[in-house]
Amino acid sequence: MSANTDQHPWYRHPWVWLLIALPLSAVIGGIITIYLAVTTSDGLVVDDYYRHGKAINRVLARDRAAAEHGLEARITLDVANNEVTVQLRSLDMVLPEALTLAFLHPTTKGHDQQVRLTRTGADRYSGRFDDLRRGDWYVQLAADDWRLSGRIRIPLESPAVLLPHDSPGR
């Protein structure tokens, strides 16, 4: 028989640490996953999907109303000063005194903003918004009975965004 001449302690062998590191990394990854699952919101899940589906039909009616009135909006954003100006045109409608402009983040509901726009001219509205994160945003310009929708990208590719009066479903 040969005697073991290796007198190093166990923690000096690299294979021991490799065997410890693999399961330890799985445990650390699991802890991080549990932390993220508990602390973040899953805002995309709707509890009452049937009621939410019925509400979508009412929203589509607002889109159709905007198309019937021939509404068209030109939204100009000044990202440096957080100011927005909207020029609204209609074929046959009296324009309201105030509008609501919503900036909707596609994935994170916590970044959504609603801006109240007040009338500053015959067809002009203005308001202020909080800082917008870089990336894609949905914009919705709305009054009580109509709504215009579109998309923007921050940083802006052009200073103005045109929300056409296309019919819904196109």
Could you characterize what this model shows?
This protein folds into two domains: 11-38; 49-163, Immunoglobulin-like (Sandwich), CATH 2.60.40.3080. A hairpin with a 4-residue loop joins strand 6 (135-142) and strand 7. Helix content is 27%, strand content 31%. Residues 165-170 have low confidence and may be disordered. The protein has helices at 14-39, 49-68; strands at residues 72-78, 83-89, 98-104, 113-119, 124-128, 135-142, 147-154, 160-163. It is elongated and about 95 Å long. With 170 residues, it is of the alpha+beta class.
According to DSSP, the number of beta strands is 8
What's the shape?
elongated
Main sheet characteristics:
8 strands, antiparallel
Instruction: Name the helicity range.
Output: 25-40%
Low-confidence spans: pLDDT under 50, at least 5 residues?
Answer: 165-170
Rounded to an integer, what's the Rg over CA atoms? 27 Å
The total of helices stands at 2
Task: Name the beta content range.
Answer: 25-35%
Number of domains: 2
Write the layout of secondary structure elements.
Blueprint: H1 14-39, H2 49-68, E1 72-78, E2 83-89, E3 98-104, E4 113-119, E5 124-128, E6 135-142, E7 147-154, E8 160-163
Antiparallel strand pairs: 1-2, 1-8, 2-5, 3-4, 3-6, 4-5, 6-7
